[in-house]
Specification:
- The structure is a single chain.
- The chain is about 30% helix and about 20% strand.
- The chain is α+β, with helices and mostly antiparallel strands.
- It folds into 2 domains: about 100 residues; about 210 residues, Alpha-Beta Complex (Ribonuclease Rh, Chain A).
- The strands form 3 sheets. Strands 4-3-2-1-5 form a 5-stranded antiparallel sheet, covered by helices on one side.
- Helix 7 runs parallel beside helix 9.
- The protein is globular and about 50 Å long.
- It starts with 9 loop residues before the first helix and ends in a 6-residue tail after the last strand.
């Protein structure tokens, strides 16, 4: 990992001028946490990327701006890159604790807790999101991971969506009552040094089936960052997350991915599969994340808004319908095939 510190000040001004869109940018402050590895462009319009820089999954970056009110890209600072200020797609991560120069409609609207009509466009703002990844796409860029070395075209993770996490909202709801040394270990990606969450053997078995990242101690990271804000103990948190993942993997959505391995799949088709599996309007609560551009763009993850009795026993379909509609995200991409 490069640790060279790039100077700002007048250099930052010159960089902004080079972007050619300084006046159109909407200033922001806060942090951008990458949820996947993505290219970091000097100019996303021209696809210029000096040094072929990529953001690193789970790493946090300083947030500077978005390209327009209805943003497609965020401008962040990548220490060591030349230039340090880069553009990344909004589907490549999440914004934590941002203070926006212009309030975004979907984040500033007051929740309408009475508008929960099944299949309708309204609902309450998501209280949680369920992030489900496509493991062959993850492993295409992380082939050295333990879970990736054993991935095959017939393994469960090669034919089903994989649990990334169940994340309490709003963004920034993280590290609840977590000691500073554990936070730092997590920020440093020292997941092997994090404590093992206290789970029953049967819960760990279920979780390991739907979350292949357990082989790299992803569960330790997820508990420290998100599970501590869920309420209750680790066993309850992971049992609930595993149950929601199992429900999705038993649906036509997972079958759609398995049937289209090696082919292009559109966000429209994915959302339609959610409608088919969980009722009309469910797909409007799903954001598709991708990595890459053009013919090389891969679908990496589905982020599903949830509301209602998330910490209890409500069915996945009911939780999806209780949440507000969200943007579709990436228009679609290749469903990477295993072995990648």
């Amino acid at each position: 990992m490069r640790t060279i510190t790039a100077g700002l000040g007048s250099a930052a001004l010159l960089t902004a001028m080079a972007f050619g869109a300084a006046q159109a940018d909407v200033p922001m402050s806060g942090k951008f946490t990458a949820t996947q590895a993505c290219p970091a462009y000097q100019s996303f319009r021209k696809s210029t990327n000096p040094g072929e820089v990529k953001i690193e999954q789970s790493k946090t970056y300083e947030l500077l701006a978005k390209n327009k009110p209805d943003a497609s890209h965020y401008r962040i600072v990548i220490q060591g890159a030349q230039p340090a200020e880069r553009w990344v797609g909004i589907s490549c991560g999440r914004v934590d604790g941002a203070e926006r120069g212009e309030r975004e409609e979907d984040n500033s609207a007051a929740p309408n807790r009475n508008a929960t009509v099944r299949g309708g466009a309204q609902g309450i703002r998501a209280t949680h999101v369920l992030a489900m990844g496509w493991e062959p796409a993850f492993c295409a860029e992380h082939s050295g991971k333990s879970e990736c070395r054993v991935l095959t075209s017939t393994s469960f993770a090669g034919t089903h969506l994989s649990l990334h996490g169940l994340w309490p909202q709003p963004r920034g709801t993280q590290y609840c009552n977590v000691e500073p040394d554990l936070r730092q270990a997590d920020h440093d990606h020292d997941w092997n040094d994090l404590p093992e969450p206290d789970m029953r053997a049967d819960t760990l078995k279920r979780l390991s089936a739907v979350m292949p990242g357990v082989q790299s101690n992803l569960q330790r990271h997820e508990w420290i960052v998100h599970g501590t804000c869920f309420g209750g103990n680790a066993d309850g948190y992971f049992a609930r997350a595993a149950g929601l993942a199992e429900a999705l993997d038993a649906s036509k959505v997972a079958k759609l991915f398995a049937d289209n391995a090696g082919r292009n799949l559109s966000a429209e088709a994915i959302r339609a599969a959610f409608d088919d599996a969980f009722g009309s309007g469910a797909g409007a609560r799903v954001t598709v994340s991708c990595n890459g551009r053009g013919e090389s763009r891969m679908i990496t993850e589905l982020v599903i808004g949830l509301a209602g009795d998330v910490t209890g026993s409500a069915r996945l379909g009911d939780l999806i319908h209780a949440a507000q509609a969200v943007p579709p995200g990436c228009p679609g991409g290749v469903v990477e095939r295993a072995p990648f």
